[in-house]
Amino acid sequence: MLSMVQVLVSDAWVRAAITAAAGLAVTITSFWALNRITPYLGRTALFICLRFFLQPGLGEAMFVWSTKSPDGPRLQAWQLGFVDCFGALGLLLGVVLYNRHLTGFSYRRIFLVIQLTFFFSQLLEVVLVLRWNRALGIPDIFFLVGDDTFALMASRMFSVVFSVLASKVCPVNLEATLFAVLMAIANFGWAVSNFLGVALCEAWGLVDGNFDQLPEAVLTKALTRLLPIPLILLTPTFTPQDPVPTNLKAEVEESQEMMEEEKA
């Protein structure tokens, strides 16, 4: 339905309002439903959905600017492949860093570090768009390699930590179903983020090859990476390698008993 809205509604602000309303509706109802099972589950769903929701991207605007704009790097195909290779290295580094250095920290501290990493990686895009890297004597290709590796490393760390958290907060005997529900909520939040990103591009006039306000758009995108930081308080205080806390087990058993009584 949201995809149809993007096609049929021409006004960017109306599309953004409808998309935001739908996103909030799904977020609230998901939290209400899952919170009845266990509070940890409801809070995790609320955190992941709002985190994606509050971080719109710029779609293909950066790719078009970096390959076709006269003011951009005008990357060629072999250069894009070179950048992707180091992006894959960043994914590997994200897994290694998580396994070796982050598993002993609480979820809140890990998510805070990752979110700040996302923010600073977006600031690198601001530097690139303003061409400050040229003033510093850094060629575009090397700057892009570092930016892509840095961003994908943070992305992989987040996906690993979130997957571990999602598996831990799912009650016994319901792991597969509720884990799938959490992944679906995350995918929905990501879709809403993309749709809002299109509206953001139009708001800054990034249409028909016009990139006059691209620095402002990239800076706006970077600042939105700070919005999910207060939401980190919704995540548990224990660490990924800790067993499920006793109070969580009690909450799960109590919620299961309530569900059985309702069925009876």
From TrEMBL:
Keyword ATP-binding belongs to the record: no
SUPFAM superfamilies the record matches: MFS general substrate transporter
Highest taxon of source: Eukaryota
Topology class, membrane: Multi-pass membrane protein
Keywords, ordered alphabetically: Membrane, Transmembrane, Transmembrane helix, Transport
Pfam family, one: BT1
InterPro entries, per database record: BT1 (IPR039309), MFS_trans_sf (IPR036259)
Subcellular location: Membrane
Main location: membrane
GO cellular component terms, semicolon-separated: membrane
Residue stretches spanning the membrane: 12-34, 77-98, 110-130, 150-166, 178-200
Family the UniProt entry places it in: Belongs to the major facilitator superfamily. Folate-biopterin transporter (TC 2.A.71) family.
Protein known as: Uncharacterized protein
Native species: Effrenium voratum
Organism ancestry: Eukaryota, Sar, Alveolata, Dinophyceae, Suessiales
